[in-house]
From TrEMBL:
Entry-linked PROSITE patterns: RBFA
Protein name: Ribosome-binding factor A
Gene Ontology, cellular component aspect: cytosol
Gene field: rbfA
Biological classification of the source: Bacteria, Bacillati, Bacillota, Clostridia, Peptostreptococcales
Cited function: One of several proteins that assist in the late maturation steps of the functional core of the 30S ribosomal subunit. Associates with free 30S ribosomal subunits (but not with 30S subunits that are part of 70S ribosomes or polysomes). Required for efficient processing of 16S rRNA. May interact with the 5'-terminal helix region of 16S rRNA.
């Protein structure tokens, strides 16, 4: 079943609030090491949970260092969860603020993997 219109709007508003806070308000050193983006927020149909997908852009780091930095970013966001929920409640008029869950967005790696598989197959694609 598809995502409802209300959940989609609420997810987008939550994404905007968190993104703005990452730029201006949250001063955690774990969140200032690289470029962090909230790529999507999925809200459950009852509005009790919001899964926030986080993209950490790291340049020139090996896989282990990248995973370590992603873990640090998730820990930093978890520690700032109370502040984020307070700001969401202030900016978006809700009776119940959803519980925030933070996950690393792996869609970019998956897209790169699919591109590599297609390239290995030698399939020409028209643009």
């Amino acid at each position: 079943m598809g995502k409802g219109y209300r959940q989609g709007r609420l997810g987008e508003e939550i994404r905007k609030v968190i993104s703005e806070m990452l730029l201006r308000e949250i001063k955690d050193p774990r969140l200032s090491s690289g470029m962090i983006s909230i790529s999507d927020v999925d809200v459950t149909s009852d509005g009790s949970y919001a899964t926030c997908y986080v993209t950490v852009l790291t340049a020139g780091k090996d896989e282990e260092a990248k995973r370590e930095e992603e873990e640090q970013v998730i820990e930093g966001l978890k520690s700032a969860k109370g502040l984020i929920k307070k700001e969401i409640g202030r900016q978006i008029k809700l009776r119940h603020i959803p519980e925030l869950l933070f996950k690393i967005d792996t869609s970019m790696e998956y897209g790169r993997h699919i591109s590599e598989v297609i390239n290995k197959l030698g399939i020409d694609h028209e643009e």
